[in-house]
Amino acid sequence: MSSPLLDIWEAASASPYQPTVAKSSQFAVGFVLLLLAFILTGVFGLNRSLVNLPLLGVPASLAFGFGAVYMICAVGVYV
């Protein structure tokens, strides 16, 4: 008598999870994203307009969000 959940668990053990960004390169990825966010935020602050919002503001906020998460994981602070 085997349950479907147990079958899925056994099948998943053959293929372990591999992250997109390796642990050894998380610091570099986080640093680059935070630097990019800082630059984009500075350019957006100098040229504020409705046109620059989707071109500079949105990518800056996404780069800061993902960069902060990668940097937190890279230095060993787990939230």
Automatic annotation (TrEMBL):
UniProt-listed GO biological process terms: protein N-linked glycosylation
Cell compartments where the protein resides: Membrane
Keywords: Membrane, Transmembrane, Transmembrane helix
Membrane topology (UniProt): Multi-pass membrane protein
InterPro entries: TMEM258/Ost5
Domain of life, per lineage: Eukaryota
Entry's transmembrane regions: 27-46, 53-78
GO cellular component, one term: oligosaccharyltransferase complex
Broad class of where this protein is predominantly found: membrane
Assembly with partners or alone: Component of the oligosaccharyltransferase (OST) complex.
Family: Belongs to the OST5 family.
Task performed by this protein: Subunit of the oligosaccharyl transferase (OST) complex that catalyzes the initial transfer of a defined glycan (Glc(3)Man(9)GlcNAc(2) in eukaryotes) from the lipid carrier dolichol-pyrophosphate to an asparagine residue within an Asn-X-Ser/Thr consensus motif in nascent polypeptide chains, the first step in protein N-glycosylation. N-glycosylation occurs cotranslationally and the complex associates with the Sec61 complex at the channel-forming translocon complex that mediates protein translocation across the endoplasmic reticulum (ER). All subunits are required for a maximal enzyme activity.
Name the record gives this protein: Dolichyl-diphosphooligosaccharide-protein glycosyltransferase subunit OST5
Organism: Glonium stellatum
Organism lineage: Eukaryota, Fungi, Dikarya, Ascomycota, Pezizomycotina
